[in-house]
Structure formats: C-alpha cells, structure tokens
Fold this protein.
Amino acid sequence: MEDDAPVIYGLEFQARALTSQTAESDAIRFLVGTQSLKFDNQIHIIDFDDENNIISKSVLQHQAGEIWHISASPADKAVLTTCYNKTSESRVVTCGAVWRMPPEWESGSHESPDDPHNSHNPQNLELLCHLDNSSHGNASCVLWEPMGDGKHVISLADNHALLWDLTESSTQATISSSATLEGKGQLKFTAGKWSPHHNCTQLATANDTAIRGWDLRTMSQIYCIENAHGQLVRDLDFNPNKQYYLASCGDDCKVKFWDVRNINEPVKTLEEHSHWVWSVRFNHSHDQLVLTGSSDSRVILSNMVSISSEPFGHLVDDDDLSDGEDNHQDEKTKEPLQDSIISTYEEHEDSVYAVEWSSADPWLFASLSYDGRLVINRVPRALKYHILL
Amino acid sequence: MDGDICATATTPPDSDPARKRRVHGMLKLYYGLNEEGKTVDQAESMNPCDINGTHFDPEVYLNKLRRECSLGELMDQETCMVKQIRSLDSDMQTLVYENYNKFISATDTIRKMKNDFKKMEDEMDCLSTNMAAITEFSAHISGTLQDQHAQITKLSGVHTLLRKLQFLFELPARLNKCLELQAYSQAVSSHRRARCVLQQYSHMPSFRGIQDDCHAIMDKLAQELRQKFRDGGSSAKDLSECVELLLQLDEPAEELCDKFLIHAQSRLEANLRGLEAELRPPLSSGPTSVIDPSIGPARRLSAAPTAGSPTDPTSPGNPFLSSSSRTDILEFIDRGCNEFVSSLCLVIASYQELFVNRPQEGELASKNIPHMAIGKLHAFVDAMATCYFLLVERRIQEEKSVGDNSLLVRALDRFHRRLQAVAKLLPGSAVPSQGTEIVVRAARERIKQYLAALQRFYLDSLRDVRQALAAPRLGGSSAGGGSHLAGPATGKDAPASLPELLSSLSASILNQIKSVLASVHLFTAKDITFSNKPYFKGEFCSQGVRESLVVNFIKFVCQSSRQFCESAGDRGGSTPPALLLLLSRLCLEYETSTITYILTLTDEQFLVQHRSPVTAVAALCGEAREAAQKLLNHYVKVQGLIISQMLRKSVETRDWVNTIEPRNVRAVMKRVVEDTTSIDVQVSLLYEEGTRKAHSSDSSKRTFSVYSGSRQQTRYAPSYTPSAAMDTNFLSNIHKLFSERIDIFSPVEFNKVSVLTGIIKISLKTFLECVRLRTFGRYGLQQIQVDCNYLQMYLWRFVSDENLVHFLLDEIVGSTAHRCLDPAPMEQSVIEVICERG
C-alpha cells in the first residue's frame, strides 16, 4: 500500500492563518490568510482534487491588513472571519471582522499554482461587519459556534471574551455578553476553543500557562488548570467525541491531554517535538488521530488510541466470526492498542504554525509553515484501513 | 688354607687347656658353627675349591692346583696339606677318648635310678588305702546330722515370716511417723513393699484393717505431695522428687505432666512479663528513660559506652546516630536468654528427666508415658517460645536506629546460640528454626532500614549541597550549610566550589555505603552462629545485600535524580540549575566507575554467589547514564529557559514600532552574554571542553544583512540585490535546503561545548519566534540588528559550530526585516561602533 506523496503548495507571502472550510462537506477546501506588511494581503482558497492529486486555488484580496487568524462559518460556505493587524499612525491594532466571499470567486478561473503572478485583478472580500473591539483591545482569535447556524461568534481580545450575535445576514454584530479575565499583570488570551459539547455552552481559553473553562450562559469560569504547561499554552482542541477531553500544546514542547473533570494531572503527555508546539487538532471523525504542528518545522500525526472514544479499535460483529482463527484475532484486537506516533512529516522548512484536518475528508489534512508553504497530507493507508476494518 | 693352623698343628695334643679350646674352635669352624652355635654364613664355601667348604670337589681342586701352580708351589702345597692331615687326626683321637669316659659315667647313673623308683611305688599303694577309709567315715557322719539341719531351716523361714508380719503391723505407725518427719520417699518405698502383700491377703480382716489404715495414710501423703507440687515454692530437685513419688503412687502421669507444665508456665510467664516490661508500651507515653529503677540494677554499665555510634553525635537528625532506648537490645536479649531461655531449658531437662527418660518398670511401662509426655512438652515449648518470640520481635522492631549494627548482631547471635541449647535438649522441636527465621527477618528488616538510612543520608546530603549552593548567593558565609559533608570543602570563608561539592558529596556517599556494608557484613562474620545458615550464605548476600541494599540504593540515586527533571516543573524554579549539573556529573561518574567499584566491593566482601539472577552492572550503568543524560538535558532546558524568558520579555514588552533610534546595545543582551559566560564557567568546572569546529578568522565580526540568507547571497549570487519578499523567501529556502535541520531541544553530549550550544540554540530560537510575533518600525529593526551583532560578537566562542549562531541570528534579523513596516537597515559600520561602545 503505497501512500500518496504529499502535495505542496507555495504562497508568495508568509502565512500563519489556516482553516478548512467548515461548511463545505464535499470539496476538500482550505483557506489560508497571508501576512505581509508591504503588500496587500490575500486569502487563498485552496481546493484539492483528491483523485487527481491536483491543487487549484483562488485568491481574494484582504486589504485590511495582515491576517493572524482565520476561521470559516460552520453554516455559510461564503462567510468567514479574520483577525488582522491594522497599522495606523504608528500604532498596530489587531481587529476582527466578518467577511463574505464574493459569489463569483468560484466561477473565476482556477489558476495553476505555478503561475502566481498571473492573478488578474483578484476580487475583494466583501466586509459584512467589524467585530468592533476598540474598547477591548487586540483580538487574538474569533471562534464560530460549532455546528451552529452561523449566528454566534466569540472573539478573544486581550483579556476579554466577547460573545457576539450576528444579525441581519451577519451584517450587524452586537455583543450579547462578555467575560473578563482578571488578575495580576497584563493578562491576555492566547488561544481559545468553543466546545462542541454541552449544547455549545462551554468555552476553553488559554492565557500564559493556564487553561480556563467558561460557561457561556453565565460567562463565568468553570475550571482553571493552572500551570497546564510549563510555558505558554499555544493552542487547544476539544475531543469531538468525548465531551470532557481536551488537548493542549505549548512552548514546553509538550502536547497534553486533559480530562477537565480531573484537572490535577494530564491524562497523557506527548513530548515528541523538539520545539514549541503551536497547533493541535483532533480528527473530527476518529479522535484517536491527533495532529500537531511545531516550530521545529515538523508535523506529527499521533495515534492516541488509549484515550480515544474507540480504545479497542472497531469492534467486529460476532456474526462475522465463525472459525477459531477469527476468534483468536478478535481477542487480539480487543486488547487496548498502544498509543504511537504514526508519522512525522518533514516537508516544511520553517516553523509550522497551523495544522488543520479537512472537513470533507477525514483522512486528509493540511499544514502551513511561516514561509508560506502549505502541505496536504493523508493518513497512511495502512492505518486508515486498520481503523476502518 | 689357613696358615695359622699350619703353624700350630704340629704341637702335641693335651699340652694345655687353652690349646684344647683352640682345637675345639677349629673343629667348630670346620663344622660351620660359630661361638654362639649358629651356622656361619656359608657364602664363600660354595666354592668347590674351598677345601674347608661343604661343596669341596677334590677333582676340581686338584685340576685347579695343577693348572695354576708351578711345581714348587705344588710341592709346598702338598707338604702343608700333609701337615694339616696329621694334626686333624690327632685331634680326632683326643675327642674320642674324652667322650668314652662320659658315656661310662652316664650308664652308672641310670642303673641307680632304677632301684629308687621301686621303693616309691610301694609307699603310694599304702596312701590310697588310707584315703578310702576316711571317705567312709565322713559319709557316716553326715547321715547322722541330716534331720537336725531340716528343722533349723524351717525355723529360720518362720522367723522371716514373722518379721514381715511385724513390718506389716507396724506399717501404719511407721508411715505416720514418716509423714510427720516428711520423709515421703521412705514412706512411699515402705508402702510399696507392703502393698502387694496387703492386696493379696485383704480378705483377712486383720490385714484389711492394716490396708485401710495404709490407704488412708498414703492418701494423706499423696495429698500433701500434691499440695507441695502445686505450691511450687520448692526447688526443681524437690519438685522432681515429688513427681517421682507421685508417679510411684499411681498418680496419672498425664495429669502430672500438665500440672508440672502449668507450674513451669507460671514461672516462665513471670520471666516473659519481666521482659515485656522492658519493652516500650505499644502506645508509648514518651520514653521513660534509663533512670527507671526497675531496670537500673540490671543495666550493665559496659553496654552503654559500646553503644556509642561511630558518627559524630553532635549532628542531629543523622540517621546513623542511635537513639537510646531504655535498655539496649543486647541487654534485653541477654536477659531473655538468662531468664527465659535458661528456665525453659531447665524445665525441659527436668521434665525429660521425670517423664521421658525414666527407666520404665512394671505397669508404668505399658502406659507409654514418654510418648505422651514428649507430645505435651513440644506443645508447651512451642507455645512458650511463641510468646517469647513475639516479645523478641517487638524488641527487634524497636531497633530502628542503624548506628551500631554490632550490638544487634551480637544480640541476635546470642539469641540464636541460646536456642541451640533448646535444640539439643529437645531434638525435633520447631523452636530453633523459628528462631532462625526471626534472625532472618531481622536481617531483612535491617537491610531495609539501612537502605532507608542511605536514602535519607543521600537526600540530606543533597539538601546540604543545595544550601551550600544557595549560600554564596545569599551573601555567603552563613555557617553550617552542609556541616556534615567533609569539613574543608564547605569551609566558612569561601563558598564551596562545584567540583569540591561534587567530590565531597560523592566521597561521603561512598563512605556511607562502605560503612553500611561493613555493618551489614557483621551478619556474615565467622564467629556468628547463624552466619553458616543457608540464608546468610546465599540469599542474604545476593538478594539482600547486593540487590536490596546496594542495587536499590543506586537505583534510588538515579531515580531521585530523574525526579528533579520531572517534578520540579518546567519553570525550573525549585531545583537550582547548578544542582542539576552537579547531579548529572555525579551520575556520570557512577556510570564510569563508582557503580562498578561498589558492586565489586560488595561481591568481594560478601562472596556473592549468584544463584538467582541479579542486576547486571551494565544495566545499572545504563540507568545511571540515562539519568545523567536526562539531568544534563534538563539543565540545558532550564538554563535555556531562563535566558529565553529574558529575551521573550524584552521582545514582548517593547513597542517596537515607536522605538527611538538605537544608541547602544540593550541591557538585556549584555545580561544574556553575562549569563551565558557564567554558565560557561559553571559547566567548565564539571565537564570537559568538548570539540568544536574550527573558527573562521573573523568569528566575532560579521556583517548582518537584513535579509536572511545573506551569506548565501554573497556566496551564490554576489551581485544580487534583494528587492522583493518573494526572492528572499526563495533564497532562504535554498539556504535551508543546504543546512541541516536544527533540533532545538535535543539531547546534549557530556561536554561543555555541547551544553552551551544547546542553551544558546534554545535562547536564539525563542528570540526568533518572539520577533515573528511583533511588528517593527525602522528603529526597531535597527535595534535588533545591533543586538544580534552584539550577540554574534560574544556567543560564537561558546558553541561547537559557529555557523549555527550565524544562521539563527541571520534568521532573526531576516524575520525582523519582514516584520518591519519601514525596513531601512542600519549601516554595518555604525552597528559595529555601537557594539564596541558596549
């Protein structure tokens, strides 16, 4: 079973922001936001043709500034949010905004990636509304309500978590509630994640070395894992199938898995990267597959079977087992499988700041390094069949 | 031929006696007899030419003569021979004459004897007739006396019977008297003599009366005996006599056994209570010390000084200092042996004397008393010994202090030795083996305690090292940090340096191990009775000392070292980095030499025979090396982190867009260089230099381009002028294609350069990542340029490959340029001026 070679796509600019188009369930599509202080920033829409192994891209202009964070609406394919830097009068401010992609982008010519300068008048994004946060400080990220109707977003700005209601086809945003992190010094949220469990009433945020859980109905703190990591916590992700399980990663090169009911000890710790881990993602369907990206330029795919929702692998139906040999195999498969590193991907040559699973194909993921290289990889076939069969 | 004979043969015979004797001599010679009448050695006479030999052959002789001799000689020979023949003839005639005279006188004597014997015959006949007459008379006399003799015999029989009867009639009175005089044994023997008779004639009223009287008296006697037996105040000898009498009085043996044992038990229990009183009560109300009057007299004065521990008694909290209990264990065991065990032995001995080893006669033999009695004895001894053992074990468990093992070993030895007496007295008893088990358990326990003590000692030493390390920072000479590490190393004037601390730490640990080994070695000393038990020969040495003590301790050292890397948290707050470094070196030394040394020492001292699998030296060394590696990695991480934090703070807290034009190097960079230098000094105290790549001639001075890949730029495309971001990306990528991937938090080697390289890598990578998160103005970029140049000037000398520093600093400057709103780099000459100004 030969695995397909990774597909590499190069952007002209440096880039940190990557997301998959959440609302799109047919096409494998990723959105990348660039960072450039000198040129107009862009959002690259990367379509991947799985059968032909071909990438096609569209470029949309994002003239507001360099993009630090991007996330796509779970309800409307065309709607997305960005956090971007705005420089004015020698002040740098990070803002959040909701955008709509122009409807024509898809009909526009699909350019080949080899020909980057060929973009003839790329289209602009249509601004829907600003998540106006002048009183709350710099936005670090914007989170959509998972599996929601695209009416609610949370933005994390400095030490505030703001819950916005989007109305009038997302052209108006009003703060419905907010929470403020208070404490000594300048506290600042570095990352956050809206939990898909509990009717989407929980939020997890990271600031410095702590991870906090919030109840969105009361906007109050539920739990706080102090010193979750030795240094800064860089990213969080919820296990999509186990409601109390959370993964975090940070500057101590570790990836930790938490059961938020018992916050004294991590359930599991991975220490495979040789530098800060910037991004961690559970696979949406098979939560034993965990993807991490690090500034050691590596992407690691781990198989955390023991703490997944399928600790024994797929259970085989008893009807299928007639003879003793199969029974024997069955016993084997019922043993808890070992956690393992499936693969280390070394296609990047600069720090990898973002990794993302495709929302359409659970066996496919993209990683983005600072030098603008986007790599699309697949879960090794052997493992895929092992999980499926 | 003999010339002497030739010369004298001519003289006439009989001339004088001497002459005659001489002739005899010659004859004797001729017949082969010497003076003592023995046959002369005939070896030469085998010669047929020897004229005196028995094998003389005249023909051969003649032939020989004729052949060998001249005529003259032959003539002489003949003359000589004729002379000899003549002399021999005359000798013979003399002999014949002498012998004839003797023969005549002998014949006369025989004739005379014949006449004498005839007379004697007649006298003998007369004697025999007289004897016959005497016999006849004697028979006659005895026939007459027959009747009288029969009568006398009858009379004497009646007399005896009467005397017996009298004895019987007097018996009650006599018994009463005996009873009064307490001469029990006499009474019993008297009664025994009469008992059968009385039994036989009890149908007669008179005898019956006597019998009843006797029974009454004997019952009374038995009662008294029992009373005496029960009171138990009497000596063992009395008691045994008592038992013997009771047995003779048909008292049931079983009951007696029980009573005897119960009585013994009460005494033994008194002993045990005495022992128990010496134990601390389980819920102790504070140690009530030596002045306790009940113990005072029993306390041997000699024991107290010997119990003094070898270590300095002034250092409190030292686990090797023995905390004094009320009586030391030797005293306790002594008392147990002297009181309990010897009483027990006495009981066993007298019991066996009484019930087991008695010659069995009569109906007593049929009851098989010994079998029953032995059974009871075993049960009894087991029960008592169990109580005793419980006490001993409690006492041993109290023996927590590991100061002086010899006391415990001596106590155990005595304990064990005295139990051998029981074994001799009572073969087949489980007591000695149980005793051995207690000793074994105590030894095991001891090993555990020693391990714990060693571990405590190690942790205490570490604490002291920690204090010693902290001391200089607090301004130094506070007294006593690490007082019980070897003295001069932690002198009060100068704070201890790392190598001194290391050597004193490792030496004190080694000494401690040695002293513990010496203490434990006492268990296997030759003069200790239990040292030849199989446990102490085999398992104790290999599993106990080697595995449980030594190997476990080494493992503990490694493990506790590793814990410093884990539990201390990633901020590295609690463990001072210097301690990590020191421990790493310690583990490395363990790996290279100490472990091998310790284990060899153990194996030699204890002659360990590895019957069961034991931990290999290599495995332990591996573990130590792993620990050393981990510690060193952690050290790098912690130190890198400290510098990283400084850099991160300095980048994050500044407004880089609105900064002013750089005038000098930021203070934080100087601090970074200073810290790096001090780390370099620290590491070089413990680790070797290590290898590095050759420096280029202009190591400290390099031009930084604002774009990464600048060196490649000059190398590959000298005329290229960077203008677009795209191109720099391209170049940067090419650069990366040719350079190796840098693992930031990677394992380091055991040398200074590698350690420093690791720390610098971590710091610079942090710098890079932080820079990428910020936006810079023109002067921000220029400040970074200045800072990087400054770092370049100082950091290259620490690392193994200076290109690494170049590369990372290039990246930093390049990334800053990317993040710059107005990338106008500073002139290199200006940068250099600023940097040199400091």
